[in-house]
Design goal:
The complex is a heterodimer of chains A (228) and B (453). Chain A is mostly helical and 228 residues long. Chain A has 13 helices and no strands. The mean pLDDT of chain A is 90. Chain B has 453 residues and is mainly alpha-helical. Helix content of chain B is 52%, strand content 6%. Chain B is globular and about 80 Å long. The chains are: A mainly alpha (228), B mainly alpha (453).
């Protein structure tokens, strides 16, 4: 068990982390390159940068836009994202893992606070999953991947919580292994699934604005009816 | 004709066979000749299907049909794109043979894309900034390339671009001149002042493009605008070669959008005008303001909406208004195409506060307003009227009723038509007008004759 665990939290974790970073970088680079390509052919090259910045920033903070509608959903969704990011970055064990492979570290959040954040995050994730399952609009919109990703995150959170507390009813090693395997899988999925929104978020509003910038030579490029 | 498909709106030459094949060929052509591929790639990667848009879309709120959820509608197009135009999608298709575009998809899209009023409200509530209005328009564009476009829009566009009259309502120049004479006589009779509608006045500051239907149906709006421009001494003209701001290209076709704008710019150049002035029309204002720079690189022609100009003229003290002329309770409808971006939200209110004492806001209003229910060109499609009345229009009617207003201002030709029909359908105790209709009543005219000629 220890060998498998060491492999999962050692070489496999390094590989998955590298894939996540490099894959995300690739995603960001090709998206930005696409935007530049579009703007190069666009007849109108002016972009409403201030509006774009406001739109991008306004969803990051729990005011105005986020709470304009579905307040409970918004609150829990925001809490889910915020706590998840905090746990991911400031959990002592995660920092130790990074120090082991990269030699860098930063301050961590104390265990009782992290445990509290984890419980909040788990409850929010259960709510979000329930929303997909039990509401008509949620069911309508959700695809298998949506359920899978959220369930995977939930498994990582619950296993991580049990692995780091004294209330673990299961084998510590087994729980930690589940946590590590699922965590690695999430890292791998970041560049290849909708989790990509984590890294693409800052570009989204720019991209939507660029999409309305039509090529100046459109009429020379386009044909007429495809089928007469 | 046993295989004849049924369409929710009239189509000139309905395609009976090879629709999927045709749609995919059209999609491929559009992707090859445009920049849409990058946004489709991006949206396919980040669409979280959180369904926030569902709670704010007034169409879905009325119908409860999954096809009317903005994200669901967009997802059909994105799925077809991923399956047929990305390497991974093609591979998956070969391996599993599933998710290919089907006849059912075509049926769903041609209905769903024209159930959407392209109001853009869903985008305001999307945490990922997905522009469903853009995707609805792209879907309609691709469908139009296989002939699936509502006849009402296609016929109007053909008349505008290829017809003798060159405008969507087929108003001939002779008819325009007769209407103008009538309007000038009306102003003289009502206001006691001779006001001209200049035609082909070379070198004018503003070349005026109203929605051409105003010449047939909105006399008070045009008279109000003429009085404001006359009283403020603005140099303006109507152009005899093109007097229609309507641009249905905004709703379904990049090609039409470009051609109508090119035609507008050519006319401004012909009579050596300096700026384009759009009348009370939301989509016409947005198409000219936002998209003219894309297709008219050689020179910049500023585009101004009449509400902007009038607000500025009042601010500059160039117009006098009778503060007591309007005594009724008035509310204001923000047309989606000019308010959603925040472009024209304050200006009409700046005008209103000068002469309307009993003003009540709708809830919500401004950038977050509810659509009239006839946006995206759907108001011009008469066969969709029952749908318009009972879905998005129903929410709007409830909103109008809640204001308790006697008058609703709708400074847009499309919104006016839809709101007029809603008032009749729901028997609302109010009337609808343009903002310049009320200004026509309230403006104090000096006894003078001013002519550009």
């Amino acid at each position: 068990m220890n060998d498998i665990l060491n492999f999962t939290t050692g070489p496999l974790f390094s590989f998955c982390l590298a894939m996540a970073i490099l894959g995300s970088l690739r995603l960001v680079i090709i998206t930005i390159a696409d935007l530049f390509r579009s703007m190069k052919t666009a007849g109108d090259k002016k972009l409403p940068w201030m509006d774009i910045a406001i739109d991008t920033a306004s969803w990051l903070f729990p005011f105005n836009r986020l709470f304009a509608t579905r307040r409970l959903f918004s609150l829990l969704s925001f809490t889910f994202h915020a706590t998840l990011i905090l746990i991911l970055i400031f959990h002592q064990d995660h920092i130790l893992l990074i120090r082991r492979i990269a030699g860098i570290s930063w301050p961590f959040i104390d265990r009782p606070i992290v445990d509290f954040l984890a419980i909040a995050c788990i409850l929010c994730a259960i709510f979000l999953l329930s929303n997909r399952i039990f509401t008509a609009s949620g069911r309508t919109m959700s695809e298998a991947m949506d359920y899978f990703i959220l369930s995977l995150i939930l498994v990582v959170l619950i296993s991580g919580f049990f692995a780091s507390t004294d209330f673990n009813p299961f084998s510590h090693g087994a729980v930690l292994l589940v946590h590590a395997v699922c965590g690695n899988l999430i890292l791998l999925l970041i560049p290849f699934s909708r989790l990509g929104h984590m890294v693409l978020y800052p570009i989204l509003w720019v991209a939507s604005a660029v999409a309305w910038k039509f090529p100046s030579d459109s009429s020379n490029r386009r044909g007429g009816m495809v089928i007469d | 004709m046993e295989n004849q498909k049924s369409y929710p709106y009239y189509i000139e030459k309905p395609l009976e066979y090879r629709r999927v094949e045709g749609f995919l060929a059209a999609f491929e052509e559009v992707l090859k000749n445009s920049n849409y591929r990058s946004i489709l790639d991006l949206y396919s990667r980040i669409s979280m299907h959180c369904s926030r848009c569902a709670t704010e879309c007034q169409i879905y709120q009325s119908t409860g049909r999954p096809e009317d959820v903005p994200c669901y509608r967009s997802a059909i197009l994105i799925r077809i794109y991923k399956r047929h135009f990305t390497p991974l999608g093609r591979l998956k298709g070969r391996l599993f043979g599933s998710l290919s575009a089907t006849e059912a998809d075509i049926d769903q899209m041609l209905e769903s894309f024209y159930h959407c009023t392209a109001c853009g409200r869903c985008t305001m509530y999307c945490p990922m900034g997905i522009d469903h209005r853009l995707l609805t328009r792209l879907g309609r564009f691709i469908l139009s390339k296989i002939g699936i476009v509502p006849k009402a829009l296609a016929v109007s566009v053909r008349e505008q671009l290829e017809g003798e009259t060159g405008n969507t309502s087929a108003v001939p120049l002779k008819g325009l001149k007769t209407t103008i004479e009538f309007l000038e006589e009306e102003i003289l009779e009502i206001k006691g002042v001779e006001v001209r509608f200049p035609v082909d006045f070379e070198g004018a500051e503003y070349v005026f493009f109203p929605p051409v239907s105003d010449f047939l149906m909105e006399a008070d709006t045009l008279m109000g605008i003429a009085c404001v421009l006359h009283e403020a001494g603005v140099s303006w003209t109507i152009a005899s070669g093109n007097y229609d701001a309507i641009n249905y290209g905004l709703f379904y076709s990049d090609e039409v959008l470009e051609k109508v704008l090119q035609k507008m710019a050519q006319e401004v150049r012909r009579i050596k005008g300096k700026k384009i002035l759009i009348g009370e029309c939301g989509h016409a204002s947005r198409s000219a303001k936002v998209f003219l720079p894309s297709f008219n690189e050689s020179e910049e022609i500023p585009v101004v909406n009449i509400l902007e100009l009038t607000a500025q003229l009042i601010k500059d003290g160039k117009i006098e208004i009778d503060e007591n002329a309007i005594t009724e309770k008035v509310t204001y409808h923000d047309p989606c195409n000019i308010s959603r971006s925040g472009w024209i939200v304050d200006q009409p209110r700046d005008i209103i506060k000068n002469f309307i004492k009993d003003f009540v806001e709708m809830t919500p209003s401004g950038r977050y307003n509810l659509c009239c229910g006839g946006g995206g060109g759907t108001v011009s499609i008469n066969e969709l009227k029952p749908y318009r009345m009972n879905t998005g229009g129903k929410r709007k009617a409830e909103q109008l009723k809640a204001t308790g207003a006697d008058v609703v201002i709708a400074p847009c030709a499309n919104c006016k038509k839809q709101i007029g029909e809603l008032i009749a359908h729901y028997k609302l105790p109010m009337r609808h007008v343009g903002l310049h209709d009320l200004l026509f009543t309230a403006i104090k005219m000096k006894k003078q004759v001013v002519s550009n000629e």
